[in-house]
Write a structure and sequence with these properties.
Blueprint: H1 5-11, E1 25-32, H2 39-45, E2 53-59, E3 69-74, H3 82-96, E4 101-105, H4 109-114, E5 117-119, H5 122-126, H6 147-159, E6 162-169, H7 171-186, E7 192-197, H8 215-236, E8 240-245, H9 252-261, E9 265-266, H10 269-274, H11 279-295, E10 301-306, H12 309-312, H13 314-327, H14 330-333, H15 337-347, H16 350-358, H17 361-368, H18 384-401, E11 411-416, H19 418-421, H20 427-445, E12 451-456, E13 466-471, E14 476-481, E15 484-489, H21 499-513, H22 529-532, H23 537-543
Protein backbone atom coordinates (compact mmCIF):
# COMPACT_ATOMS: atom_id res chain seq x y z
CA UNK A 1 0.00 0.00 0.00
CA UNK A 2 1.53 3.32 -1.12
CA UNK A 3 0.94 6.19 1.31
CA UNK A 4 1.61 9.91 1.14
CA UNK A 5 4.20 11.67 3.31
CA UNK A 6 1.36 13.33 5.22
CA UNK A 7 -0.26 9.95 5.91
CA UNK A 8 3.07 8.54 7.03
CA UNK A 9 3.55 11.44 9.43
CA UNK A 10 -0.03 11.19 10.69
CA UNK A 11 0.34 7.48 11.36
CA UNK A 12 2.74 8.36 14.15
CA UNK A 13 0.13 10.58 15.89
CA UNK A 14 -1.09 9.00 19.13
CA UNK A 15 -4.65 10.15 19.79
CA UNK A 16 -5.39 11.48 23.23
CA UNK A 17 -7.65 9.60 25.67
CA UNK A 18 -9.78 10.71 28.62
CA UNK A 19 -7.95 10.16 31.90
CA UNK A 20 -10.57 7.57 32.99
CA UNK A 21 -9.68 5.37 29.98
CA UNK A 22 -5.92 5.52 30.50
CA UNK A 23 -6.05 2.57 32.93
CA UNK A 24 -8.50 0.05 34.40
CA UNK A 25 -12.06 1.32 34.77
CA UNK A 26 -15.18 0.71 36.83
CA UNK A 27 -18.69 1.39 35.50
CA UNK A 28 -20.80 3.75 37.61
CA UNK A 29 -24.52 3.42 36.93
CA UNK A 30 -26.94 6.33 37.02
CA UNK A 31 -30.72 6.27 37.25
CA UNK A 32 -33.02 4.24 35.03
CA UNK A 33 -33.81 5.95 31.72
CA UNK A 34 -36.83 6.27 29.45
CA UNK A 35 -37.21 7.07 25.76
CA UNK A 36 -37.52 10.66 24.53
CA UNK A 37 -41.02 9.93 23.26
CA UNK A 38 -43.69 7.23 22.98
CA UNK A 39 -42.46 5.58 26.18
CA UNK A 40 -45.18 2.90 26.25
CA UNK A 41 -44.64 1.85 22.63
CA UNK A 42 -40.82 1.86 22.86
CA UNK A 43 -40.88 -0.17 26.08
CA UNK A 44 -43.14 -2.75 24.40
CA UNK A 45 -40.78 -2.93 21.40
CA UNK A 46 -37.64 -3.29 23.57
CA UNK A 47 -38.59 -5.08 26.82
CA UNK A 48 -35.06 -6.46 27.35
CA UNK A 49 -33.07 -3.29 26.70
CA UNK A 50 -35.44 -0.50 27.80
CA UNK A 51 -34.87 1.59 30.93
CA UNK A 52 -31.19 0.73 31.46
CA UNK A 53 -29.07 3.33 33.30
CA UNK A 54 -26.56 5.75 31.83
CA UNK A 55 -23.01 4.51 32.45
CA UNK A 56 -19.99 6.63 33.42
CA UNK A 57 -16.50 5.15 33.60
CA UNK A 58 -14.15 6.02 36.42
CA UNK A 59 -10.68 4.74 37.26
CA UNK A 60 -10.88 1.41 39.07
CA UNK A 61 -9.95 -2.25 38.87
CA UNK A 62 -10.68 -4.14 35.69
CA UNK A 63 -11.70 -7.76 36.37
CA UNK A 64 -9.64 -10.41 34.61
CA UNK A 65 -11.39 -11.60 31.45
CA UNK A 66 -11.04 -14.71 29.38
CA UNK A 67 -10.03 -14.08 25.73
CA UNK A 68 -12.89 -12.93 23.53
CA UNK A 69 -13.42 -11.69 19.97
CA UNK A 70 -15.25 -8.61 18.71
CA UNK A 71 -16.87 -7.79 15.37
CA UNK A 72 -17.16 -4.35 13.84
CA UNK A 73 -19.41 -2.91 11.10
CA UNK A 74 -19.22 0.43 9.28
CA UNK A 75 -22.76 1.36 8.28
CA UNK A 76 -24.15 4.13 6.07
CA UNK A 77 -22.31 7.10 4.58
CA UNK A 78 -18.65 7.71 5.29
CA UNK A 79 -17.49 10.16 7.95
CA UNK A 80 -13.96 11.29 8.87
CA UNK A 81 -12.61 9.36 11.85
CA UNK A 82 -14.11 5.92 11.22
CA UNK A 83 -10.69 4.32 11.06
CA UNK A 84 -9.84 5.86 14.41
CA UNK A 85 -12.93 4.32 16.01
CA UNK A 86 -11.67 0.98 14.73
CA UNK A 87 -8.10 1.61 15.92
CA UNK A 88 -9.38 2.68 19.36
CA UNK A 89 -11.51 -0.46 19.60
CA UNK A 90 -8.59 -2.59 18.36
CA UNK A 91 -6.19 -1.15 20.95
CA UNK A 92 -8.87 -1.37 23.63
CA UNK A 93 -9.68 -5.06 23.14
CA UNK A 94 -5.97 -5.92 22.85
CA UNK A 95 -5.26 -4.07 26.12
CA UNK A 96 -7.84 -6.27 27.86
CA UNK A 97 -6.16 -9.42 26.56
CA UNK A 98 -3.57 -9.64 23.74
CA UNK A 99 -5.25 -12.87 22.59
CA UNK A 100 -8.48 -11.01 21.75
CA UNK A 101 -9.28 -10.63 18.04
CA UNK A 102 -11.16 -8.00 16.05
CA UNK A 103 -13.06 -9.00 12.91
CA UNK A 104 -14.39 -6.48 10.38
CA UNK A 105 -17.48 -7.32 8.33
CA UNK A 106 -17.05 -6.33 4.68
CA UNK A 107 -19.17 -3.58 3.10
CA UNK A 108 -21.41 -2.90 6.05
CA UNK A 109 -24.25 -4.87 7.66
CA UNK A 110 -24.52 -6.95 4.49
CA UNK A 111 -21.16 -8.51 5.40
CA UNK A 112 -22.67 -9.86 8.61
CA UNK A 113 -25.63 -11.38 6.79
CA UNK A 114 -23.54 -12.78 3.93
CA UNK A 115 -20.67 -13.94 6.19
CA UNK A 116 -18.05 -11.76 4.50
CA UNK A 117 -15.36 -10.70 6.96
CA UNK A 118 -11.66 -10.25 7.62
CA UNK A 119 -9.49 -10.25 10.72
CA UNK A 120 -8.01 -6.85 11.50
CA UNK A 121 -4.36 -7.53 12.28
CA UNK A 122 -1.83 -5.13 13.83
CA UNK A 123 -0.10 -4.75 10.44
CA UNK A 124 -3.38 -3.88 8.71
CA UNK A 125 -4.51 -1.53 11.48
CA UNK A 126 -1.27 0.44 11.38
CA UNK A 127 -1.88 1.33 7.72
CA UNK A 128 -5.13 3.12 8.55
CA UNK A 129 -4.49 5.00 11.79
CA UNK A 130 -5.58 8.68 11.63
CA UNK A 131 -6.74 8.38 8.02
CA UNK A 132 -10.04 9.37 6.44
CA UNK A 133 -12.50 7.08 4.73
CA UNK A 134 -14.00 3.71 5.54
CA UNK A 135 -11.88 1.74 3.06
CA UNK A 136 -10.31 -0.63 5.59
CA UNK A 137 -13.46 -2.81 5.39
CA UNK A 138 -15.87 -0.64 3.40
CA UNK A 139 -19.38 0.45 4.32
CA UNK A 140 -22.90 -0.37 3.18
CA UNK A 141 -26.55 0.52 3.70
CA UNK A 142 -28.16 -2.88 4.25
CA UNK A 143 -30.80 -2.49 6.96
CA UNK A 144 -30.72 -5.05 9.78
CA UNK A 145 -34.42 -5.47 10.55
CA UNK A 146 -35.48 -9.02 9.62
CA UNK A 147 -35.31 -12.14 11.80
CA UNK A 148 -33.70 -14.07 8.96
CA UNK A 149 -30.85 -11.52 8.89
CA UNK A 150 -30.38 -11.76 12.67
CA UNK A 151 -30.21 -15.54 12.52
CA UNK A 152 -27.71 -15.52 9.66
CA UNK A 153 -25.67 -13.05 11.69
CA UNK A 154 -25.59 -15.20 14.79
CA UNK A 155 -24.29 -18.13 12.74
CA UNK A 156 -21.08 -16.33 11.76
CA UNK A 157 -20.73 -14.62 15.16
CA UNK A 158 -20.73 -18.03 16.85
CA UNK A 159 -18.39 -19.50 14.26
CA UNK A 160 -15.85 -16.71 14.92
CA UNK A 161 -16.34 -16.77 18.69
CA UNK A 162 -17.50 -13.13 18.66
CA UNK A 163 -18.74 -11.91 22.05
CA UNK A 164 -19.79 -8.43 20.93
CA UNK A 165 -20.61 -6.54 17.76
CA UNK A 166 -19.87 -2.79 17.39
CA UNK A 167 -21.93 -0.92 14.78
CA UNK A 168 -20.61 2.45 13.66
CA UNK A 169 -23.38 4.50 12.10
CA UNK A 170 -25.93 7.29 12.19
CA UNK A 171 -29.43 7.38 13.63
CA UNK A 172 -30.86 4.70 11.32
CA UNK A 173 -27.85 2.40 11.72
CA UNK A 174 -27.94 2.72 15.50
CA UNK A 175 -31.69 2.11 15.48
CA UNK A 176 -30.85 -1.17 13.72
CA UNK A 177 -28.17 -1.83 16.35
CA UNK A 178 -30.80 -1.39 19.06
CA UNK A 179 -33.19 -3.78 17.30
CA UNK A 180 -30.39 -6.35 16.95
CA UNK A 181 -29.37 -5.98 20.60
CA UNK A 182 -32.96 -6.52 21.68
CA UNK A 183 -33.34 -9.62 19.50
CA UNK A 184 -30.13 -11.24 20.74
CA UNK A 185 -31.01 -10.40 24.36
CA UNK A 186 -34.52 -11.85 23.97
CA UNK A 187 -33.08 -15.05 22.49
CA UNK A 188 -30.38 -15.16 25.19
CA UNK A 189 -27.72 -15.62 22.49
CA UNK A 190 -25.06 -13.97 24.66
CA UNK A 191 -23.88 -11.51 21.99
CA UNK A 192 -23.59 -7.86 22.96
CA UNK A 193 -24.29 -5.01 20.52
CA UNK A 194 -22.71 -1.56 20.97
CA UNK A 195 -23.26 1.54 18.78
CA UNK A 196 -21.03 4.51 17.92
CA UNK A 197 -22.49 7.90 16.85
CA UNK A 198 -21.43 8.71 13.28
CA UNK A 199 -22.79 11.24 10.78
CA UNK A 200 -21.30 14.36 9.25
CA UNK A 201 -24.83 15.84 9.22
CA UNK A 202 -24.52 16.45 12.99
CA UNK A 203 -28.12 15.35 13.67
CA UNK A 204 -27.23 12.44 15.99
CA UNK A 205 -26.79 14.35 19.23
CA UNK A 206 -28.65 15.04 22.46
CA UNK A 207 -27.96 15.72 26.12
CA UNK A 208 -25.68 12.68 26.28
CA UNK A 209 -24.08 12.81 22.80
CA UNK A 210 -22.37 16.17 22.31
CA UNK A 211 -21.63 15.63 18.64
CA UNK A 212 -21.50 12.88 16.06
CA UNK A 213 -18.04 12.05 14.81
CA UNK A 214 -16.97 13.40 11.42
CA UNK A 215 -19.00 16.61 11.79
CA UNK A 216 -15.97 18.60 12.94
CA UNK A 217 -13.73 17.51 10.05
CA UNK A 218 -16.41 17.77 7.37
CA UNK A 219 -17.37 21.30 8.42
CA UNK A 220 -13.73 22.40 8.53
CA UNK A 221 -13.21 20.91 5.06
CA UNK A 222 -16.29 22.64 3.63
CA UNK A 223 -15.37 25.88 5.38
CA UNK A 224 -11.95 25.85 3.76
CA UNK A 225 -13.62 25.49 0.34
CA UNK A 226 -16.20 28.19 1.12
CA UNK A 227 -13.42 30.47 2.33
CA UNK A 228 -11.54 29.90 -0.93
CA UNK A 229 -14.66 30.73 -2.92
CA UNK A 230 -15.31 33.84 -0.83
CA UNK A 231 -11.77 35.05 -1.43
CA UNK A 232 -12.25 34.50 -5.16
CA UNK A 233 -15.66 36.17 -4.93
CA UNK A 234 -14.15 39.19 -3.19
CA UNK A 235 -11.39 39.31 -5.81
CA UNK A 236 -13.47 39.07 -9.00
CA UNK A 237 -16.50 40.89 -7.53
CA UNK A 238 -18.89 39.75 -10.24
CA UNK A 239 -20.59 36.55 -9.10
CA UNK A 240 -23.09 35.38 -6.54
CA UNK A 241 -22.05 31.89 -5.44
CA UNK A 242 -24.91 29.58 -4.45
CA UNK A 243 -23.40 26.78 -2.32
CA UNK A 244 -25.44 23.75 -1.31
CA UNK A 245 -24.13 21.79 1.67
CA UNK A 246 -24.83 18.26 2.88
CA UNK A 247 -27.46 17.86 5.57
CA UNK A 248 -30.75 16.41 4.40
CA UNK A 249 -32.66 16.46 7.69
CA UNK A 250 -30.95 19.27 9.61
CA UNK A 251 -29.01 22.45 8.91
CA UNK A 252 -26.14 21.89 11.35
CA UNK A 253 -23.48 21.87 8.60
CA UNK A 254 -24.76 25.07 6.99
CA UNK A 255 -24.95 26.82 10.36
CA UNK A 256 -21.46 25.71 11.43
CA UNK A 257 -19.96 26.78 8.09
CA UNK A 258 -21.71 30.13 8.39
CA UNK A 259 -20.23 30.60 11.87
CA UNK A 260 -16.79 29.82 10.48
CA UNK A 261 -16.97 31.81 7.21
CA UNK A 262 -19.51 34.65 7.71
CA UNK A 263 -21.25 34.47 4.30
CA UNK A 264 -23.73 37.09 3.09
CA UNK A 265 -26.65 34.67 3.34
CA UNK A 266 -27.16 31.33 5.07
CA UNK A 267 -30.56 29.66 4.99
CA UNK A 268 -31.56 27.53 7.97
CA UNK A 269 -34.23 24.99 7.06
CA UNK A 270 -35.63 24.79 10.58
CA UNK A 271 -36.23 28.56 10.62
CA UNK A 272 -37.90 28.45 7.21
CA UNK A 273 -40.33 25.87 8.56
CA UNK A 274 -40.90 27.66 11.87
CA UNK A 275 -41.75 30.90 10.06
CA UNK A 276 -44.00 29.13 7.57
CA UNK A 277 -42.06 30.56 4.65
CA UNK A 278 -43.06 29.74 1.09
CA UNK A 279 -40.57 29.15 -1.71
CA UNK A 280 -41.31 32.67 -2.91
CA UNK A 281 -40.59 34.05 0.59
CA UNK A 282 -37.15 32.41 0.51
CA UNK A 283 -36.46 33.75 -3.00
CA UNK A 284 -37.59 37.24 -2.01
CA UNK A 285 -35.31 37.25 1.04
CA UNK A 286 -32.27 36.39 -1.08
CA UNK A 287 -33.25 38.89 -3.78
CA UNK A 288 -33.57 41.69 -1.23
CA UNK A 289 -30.04 41.06 0.05
CA UNK A 290 -28.71 40.94 -3.53
CA UNK A 291 -30.47 44.23 -4.36
CA UNK A 292 -29.23 45.95 -1.19
CA UNK A 293 -25.63 44.95 -1.93
CA UNK A 294 -26.00 46.03 -5.57
CA UNK A 295 -27.12 49.47 -4.37
CA UNK A 296 -23.73 49.74 -2.67
CA UNK A 297 -21.93 48.64 -5.84
CA UNK A 298 -21.37 45.07 -4.62
CA UNK A 299 -22.68 42.70 -7.30
CA UNK A 300 -21.25 39.63 -5.60
CA UNK A 301 -21.82 37.46 -2.57
CA UNK A 302 -22.21 33.96 -1.13
CA UNK A 303 -25.34 32.00 -0.23
CA UNK A 304 -25.21 28.80 1.86
CA UNK A 305 -28.10 26.38 1.33
CA UNK A 306 -28.82 23.23 3.38
CA UNK A 307 -29.31 20.16 1.21
CA UNK A 308 -32.73 19.39 2.69
CA UNK A 309 -34.14 22.93 2.52
CA UNK A 310 -36.95 22.08 0.13
CA UNK A 311 -38.39 19.51 2.56
CA UNK A 312 -38.76 22.19 5.25
CA UNK A 313 -40.89 24.60 3.21
CA UNK A 314 -44.27 23.87 4.87
CA UNK A 315 -46.34 23.53 1.69
CA UNK A 316 -43.75 21.23 0.11
CA UNK A 317 -43.36 19.26 3.34
CA UNK A 318 -47.11 18.54 3.31
CA UNK A 319 -46.83 17.51 -0.33
CA UNK A 320 -43.92 15.15 0.40
CA UNK A 321 -45.77 13.56 3.34
CA UNK A 322 -48.70 12.66 1.08
CA UNK A 323 -46.36 11.57 -1.73
CA UNK A 324 -44.61 9.20 0.70
CA UNK A 325 -47.92 7.60 1.65
CA UNK A 326 -49.00 7.26 -1.99
CA UNK A 327 -45.65 5.80 -3.09
CA UNK A 328 -45.73 3.27 -0.23
CA UNK A 329 -48.87 1.64 -1.66
CA UNK A 330 -48.49 -1.60 -3.66
CA UNK A 331 -50.27 -0.03 -6.64
CA UNK A 332 -47.66 2.73 -6.96
CA UNK A 333 -44.71 0.39 -6.53
CA UNK A 334 -45.83 -1.80 -9.42
CA UNK A 335 -46.01 1.06 -11.93
CA UNK A 336 -43.42 2.32 -14.40
CA UNK A 337 -41.84 5.74 -13.85
CA UNK A 338 -44.06 7.66 -16.31
CA UNK A 339 -47.19 5.91 -15.06
CA UNK A 340 -46.13 6.57 -11.47
CA UNK A 341 -46.22 10.35 -11.92
CA UNK A 342 -49.75 10.26 -13.38
CA UNK A 343 -50.83 7.93 -10.57
CA UNK A 344 -49.34 10.23 -7.93
CA UNK A 345 -50.96 13.36 -9.35
CA UNK A 346 -54.37 11.68 -9.51
CA UNK A 347 -54.19 10.74 -5.82
CA UNK A 348 -52.98 14.07 -4.42
CA UNK A 349 -55.29 16.40 -2.55
CA UNK A 350 -56.35 19.55 -4.40
CA UNK A 351 -54.01 21.72 -2.26
CA UNK A 352 -51.01 19.43 -2.74
CA UNK A 353 -51.69 19.03 -6.46
CA UNK A 354 -51.57 22.81 -6.88
CA UNK A 355 -48.19 22.94 -5.11
CA UNK A 356 -46.93 20.01 -7.20
CA UNK A 357 -47.97 21.69 -10.46
CA UNK A 358 -46.32 24.98 -9.42
CA UNK A 359 -42.86 23.41 -9.12
CA UNK A 360 -40.33 23.22 -11.96
CA UNK A 361 -40.79 19.93 -13.83
CA UNK A 362 -37.40 18.54 -12.77
CA UNK A 363 -38.09 19.16 -9.08
CA UNK A 364 -41.63 17.77 -9.26
CA UNK A 365 -40.39 14.59 -10.94
CA UNK A 366 -37.70 14.08 -8.30
CA UNK A 367 -40.21 14.49 -5.48
CA UNK A 368 -42.61 12.05 -7.12
CA UNK A 369 -40.20 9.26 -8.00
CA UNK A 370 -37.24 7.58 -6.33
CA UNK A 371 -36.82 7.19 -2.58
CA UNK A 372 -33.72 6.14 -0.65
CA UNK A 373 -33.67 2.86 1.39
CA UNK A 374 -35.30 4.68 4.33
CA UNK A 375 -38.20 5.98 2.21
CA UNK A 376 -36.85 9.55 2.00
CA UNK A 377 -36.82 11.91 -0.97
CA UNK A 378 -33.30 11.95 -2.43
CA UNK A 379 -32.79 15.65 -1.87
CA UNK A 380 -29.13 15.52 -2.90
CA UNK A 381 -30.33 14.97 -6.47
CA UNK A 382 -32.47 18.13 -6.41
CA UNK A 383 -30.37 21.08 -7.58
CA UNK A 384 -31.80 23.50 -5.02
CA UNK A 385 -28.92 25.93 -5.56
CA UNK A 386 -29.83 26.29 -9.27
CA UNK A 387 -33.54 26.41 -8.54
CA UNK A 388 -33.08 29.31 -6.11
CA UNK A 389 -30.62 31.28 -8.25
CA UNK A 390 -32.91 30.98 -11.29
CA UNK A 391 -35.92 32.17 -9.30
CA UNK A 392 -33.92 35.00 -7.72
CA UNK A 393 -32.74 36.07 -11.18
CA UNK A 394 -36.31 36.11 -12.46
CA UNK A 395 -37.45 38.23 -9.51
CA UNK A 396 -34.57 40.68 -9.98
CA UNK A 397 -35.45 41.00 -13.68
CA UNK A 398 -39.00 41.90 -12.68
CA UNK A 399 -37.74 44.42 -10.13
CA UNK A 400 -35.45 45.94 -12.77
CA UNK A 401 -38.48 46.59 -14.98
CA UNK A 402 -40.14 48.26 -11.99
CA UNK A 403 -36.99 50.33 -11.26
CA UNK A 404 -36.57 48.56 -7.91
CA UNK A 405 -33.20 47.06 -8.73
CA UNK A 406 -30.08 48.29 -10.48
CA UNK A 407 -27.26 45.82 -10.71
CA UNK A 408 -25.78 42.75 -12.37
CA UNK A 409 -26.56 39.23 -11.25
CA UNK A 410 -24.09 36.58 -12.39
CA UNK A 411 -24.11 33.21 -10.64
CA UNK A 412 -21.92 30.21 -9.93
CA UNK A 413 -23.16 26.96 -8.35
CA UNK A 414 -21.52 24.47 -6.00
CA UNK A 415 -22.54 21.38 -4.03
CA UNK A 416 -20.17 20.29 -1.27
CA UNK A 417 -20.90 16.78 -0.06
CA UNK A 418 -18.53 13.97 -0.95
CA UNK A 419 -15.59 16.38 -0.62
CA UNK A 420 -15.90 16.22 3.17
CA UNK A 421 -17.00 12.67 3.92
CA UNK A 422 -13.58 10.99 3.72
CA UNK A 423 -11.21 13.81 4.68
CA UNK A 424 -8.32 12.98 6.99
CA UNK A 425 -9.74 13.59 10.48
CA UNK A 426 -8.94 16.76 12.38
CA UNK A 427 -7.12 16.34 15.68
CA UNK A 428 -10.48 16.72 17.41
CA UNK A 429 -12.08 13.91 15.40
CA UNK A 430 -8.93 11.76 15.60
CA UNK A 431 -8.99 12.00 19.42
CA UNK A 432 -12.78 11.82 19.76
CA UNK A 433 -13.14 8.79 17.48
CA UNK A 434 -10.25 6.90 19.04
CA UNK A 435 -11.81 7.51 22.46
CA UNK A 436 -15.24 6.32 21.24
CA UNK A 437 -13.70 3.05 20.00
CA UNK A 438 -11.55 2.50 23.09
CA UNK A 439 -14.56 3.27 25.26
CA UNK A 440 -16.66 0.71 23.36
CA UNK A 441 -14.17 -1.97 24.43
CA UNK A 442 -14.86 -1.05 28.06
CA UNK A 443 -18.62 -1.25 27.55
CA UNK A 444 -18.07 -4.75 26.16
CA UNK A 445 -15.79 -5.70 29.05
CA UNK A 446 -18.49 -4.59 31.49
CA UNK A 447 -21.11 -6.78 29.83
CA UNK A 448 -23.24 -3.99 28.33
CA UNK A 449 -25.50 -4.35 25.29
CA UNK A 450 -27.90 -1.98 23.59
CA UNK A 451 -25.63 0.95 24.54
CA UNK A 452 -24.04 3.69 22.51
CA UNK A 453 -20.46 4.67 23.28
CA UNK A 454 -20.32 8.32 24.41
CA UNK A 455 -17.56 10.81 25.20
CA UNK A 456 -18.59 14.08 26.85
CA UNK A 457 -17.03 17.37 27.99
CA UNK A 458 -15.11 17.59 24.70
CA UNK A 459 -14.61 21.35 24.72
CA UNK A 460 -12.11 20.72 27.53
CA UNK A 461 -8.65 19.14 27.13
CA UNK A 462 -8.93 15.45 26.23
CA UNK A 463 -7.72 14.30 29.65
CA UNK A 464 -10.88 15.88 31.13
CA UNK A 465 -13.27 14.17 28.73
CA UNK A 466 -15.92 11.94 30.33
CA UNK A 467 -16.39 8.40 29.01
CA UNK A 468 -19.41 6.15 29.33
CA UNK A 469 -22.49 4.79 27.60
CA UNK A 470 -26.14 5.67 27.01
CA UNK A 471 -28.93 3.15 26.31
CA UNK A 472 -29.95 3.53 22.66
CA UNK A 473 -33.62 3.16 23.66
CA UNK A 474 -33.32 6.45 25.56
CA UNK A 475 -32.99 8.31 22.23
CA UNK A 476 -35.92 6.67 20.47
CA UNK A 477 -39.47 7.57 19.53
CA UNK A 478 -42.04 6.36 16.98
CA UNK A 479 -42.07 7.87 13.48
CA UNK A 480 -43.70 7.02 10.16
CA UNK A 481 -41.29 5.31 7.76
CA UNK A 482 -42.40 3.87 4.41
CA UNK A 483 -46.01 4.27 5.46
CA UNK A 484 -45.66 2.49 8.83
CA UNK A 485 -44.95 3.65 12.39
CA UNK A 486 -41.54 2.41 13.49
CA UNK A 487 -39.20 2.96 16.47
CA UNK A 488 -36.31 5.21 15.41
CA UNK A 489 -33.71 7.46 17.03
CA UNK A 490 -35.01 11.03 17.04
CA UNK A 491 -32.98 13.32 14.81
CA UNK A 492 -31.55 16.46 16.41
CA UNK A 493 -32.46 19.56 14.39
CA UNK A 494 -31.03 23.06 14.75
CA UNK A 495 -32.57 24.60 17.86
CA UNK A 496 -33.74 28.13 17.09
CA UNK A 497 -33.48 29.06 20.76
CA UNK A 498 -29.99 27.54 21.04
CA UNK A 499 -26.82 29.59 21.43
CA UNK A 500 -25.31 28.78 17.98
CA UNK A 501 -28.37 29.92 16.03
CA UNK A 502 -28.93 32.95 18.25
CA UNK A 503 -25.35 34.09 17.66
CA UNK A 504 -25.75 33.59 13.91
CA UNK A 505 -29.08 35.47 13.89
CA UNK A 506 -27.48 38.39 15.73
CA UNK A 507 -24.79 38.71 13.04
CA UNK A 508 -26.45 37.85 9.72
CA UNK A 509 -27.79 41.32 8.94
CA UNK A 510 -24.28 42.70 9.35
CA UNK A 511 -22.79 39.90 7.21
CA UNK A 512 -25.45 40.48 4.53
CA UNK A 513 -24.58 44.15 4.11
CA UNK A 514 -20.83 44.01 4.61
CA UNK A 515 -18.21 41.82 3.01
CA UNK A 516 -17.17 40.31 6.33
CA UNK A 517 -15.75 37.06 4.97
CA UNK A 518 -13.51 34.80 7.06
CA UNK A 519 -11.08 32.48 5.28
CA UNK A 520 -10.50 29.50 7.64
CA UNK A 521 -7.83 27.80 5.51
CA UNK A 522 -6.97 24.08 5.58
CA UNK A 523 -7.13 21.83 8.63
CA UNK A 524 -3.94 22.03 10.68
CA UNK A 525 -2.52 18.96 12.43
CA UNK A 526 0.64 20.36 14.05
CA UNK A 527 1.04 23.63 15.89
CA UNK A 528 -0.60 25.60 18.72
CA UNK A 529 -3.59 23.90 20.34
CA UNK A 530 -5.81 26.90 19.63
CA UNK A 531 -5.18 26.31 15.92
CA UNK A 532 -5.10 22.51 15.80
CA UNK A 533 -7.31 21.07 18.52
CA UNK A 534 -10.40 23.29 18.64
CA UNK A 535 -13.89 21.77 18.36
CA UNK A 536 -16.59 23.30 16.17
CA UNK A 537 -17.93 26.77 16.90
CA UNK A 538 -21.34 25.14 17.35
CA UNK A 539 -20.04 23.04 20.24
CA UNK A 540 -18.11 25.93 21.76
CA UNK A 541 -21.24 28.12 21.76
CA UNK A 542 -23.40 25.32 23.15
CA UNK A 543 -20.99 24.68 26.02
CA UNK A 544 -19.98 28.29 26.69
Amino acid sequence: MVISKLQAARAAYQPKLPKALQGPVVAVEGKATESVGNQKEIKEEFPNTYGMPIITFESGEQPKLEPFNVGIILSGGQAPGGHNVISGLFDGVKSLNPANKLYGFILGPGGLVDHKYMEITPELMDQYRNTGGFDIIGSGRTKLELEDQFEKGIQILRELGIKALVIIGGDDSNTNACVLAEYYAAKKYGVQVIGCPKTIDGDLKNEQIETSFGFDTACKTYSELIGNIQRDCNSARKYWHFIKLMGRSASHIALECALQCQPNICLISEEVEAKGMSLDDVVTYIAEVVAARAAEGNNFGTVLIPEGLIEFIPAIKKLIAQLNDILATPEAQNLGRSEQIDFVKSHLSKENREVFNSLPTSVARQLALDRDPHGNVQVSLIETEKLLSTMVGAKLDQWKKEDKYVGKFGTQHHFFGYEGRCAAPSNYDADYCYSLGYNASRLIANGKTGYMSIIKNTTKPAAEWIAGGVPITMMMNMEKRNGKMKPVIRKALVELDGAPFKYFASKREEWAKQTAYVYPGPIQYWGPSEVCDQPTKTLQLEKA
